[in-house]
Amino acid sequence: MNDILLFTLIITLGINFGIYFRLIAKKRSTINYLFSKLKQILPDKAFESIIIINSSISEDIEILLSHKSGSWIILYNGPDWLFNIKKRKFGERCLLLNEVISDRKVFLFKNSAIFQKKGGKYLHISEVEQFIKYLQYSYSKNST
């Protein structure tokens, strides 16, 4: 009886690990596609990071993004009329998320920050507002 239970547990864990690693591979593939697509759309712009924001992001985060948007591409996920307002604020580095990547892949990136690291690896942060507040704190601390 214990052998059957152990065997079932091992099979279940194997299936769960397989699903997890497939999801990780899909996410990595989508991030690679996203960076290559953005390099095609904006070939003359150098960027290291992608910030994906929804229409629900707070105003103080938008103020910080407008000051620190030098090496970031901002992908906005929201209604077209609100995107037009954001584009005037952020400039040509602000793109509509649905025009860059298909809707079925958007679920991987609610509010996100994706940083390209050396060696072709990426750092994906899902708590964008807290991370940008941390950056604001560390920038203000370093400037004093």
Radius of gyration: 19 Å
Strand order of the largest sheet: 3-2-1-4-5
Tertiary shape: elongated
Largest sheet: 5 strands, mixed
Strand percent estimate: 15-25%
The percent range for helix content is 55-70%
**Helix-strand sequence:** HEHEHEHEEH
Total domain count? 1
Class of secondary structure makeup: alpha/beta
Give the count of helical stretches. 5
**Total beta strands:** 5
What's the N-to-C terminus distance? 67 Å
Mean pLDDT: 77
Any low-confidence stretches, pLDDT <50, length ≥5? none
Q: Main attributes?
A:
single chain; 144 residues; alpha/beta; 5-stranded mixed sheet; 5 strands
Explain the overall architecture.
With 144 residues, this protein is α/β, with parallel strands linked by helices. It has one domain. It contains five helices and five strands. A five-stranded mixed sheet has the order 3-2-1-4-5, with helices on both faces. A hairpin with a 5-residue loop joins β4 (112-116) and β5. The protein is elongated. The model has no long low-confidence stretch (mean pLDDT 77).
